Amino acid sequence: MRKKDNTAVAIFVGAVVFLALEVAVYYGLVTWLVPTDPEVEEQGGSIVRNWNKVMYFILIYMGVLVGALLFASSQVPRSYRRHVLFWFYLSLPTLLVLLVLAFS
C-alpha cells in the first residue's frame, strides 16, 4: 500500500512539474520568438516566413527538454526514473501541439 501511495504522489508531482515546464517554455518562446515587425511580414521573400522562428523554437525547446531530463534523472531515485522518461516521451508530441498554437 505504501509503494502505491508513493507512486501516485510521484505521478502527480511529475504532472505538475511537466505542466509548469511546458507552460513556462511555451510562453517564454512565444514572447521571444513570435512577435515580428509588421514591415518584415509584408515583405515576405521566403516560402515559409516563420521558418527560422520554427527552427529556433524546436531547438530551444529540445535543449530545455533534454536539460530538464538530465537534471531530473540525476535528482530522483532510480525507481522513479521511468516516470521521468514517461514525461519526456510525452513532451515530444506536445512539441507539435505547441508549434501549431504558437504559429497559427
Automatic annotation (TrEMBL):
- List keywords of the entry alphabetically: Membrane, Transmembrane, Transmembrane helix
Superkingdom of source: Bacteria
Q: Which residues cross the membrane?
A: 7-34, 54-72, 84-103
- The molecule here is called Uncharacterized protein
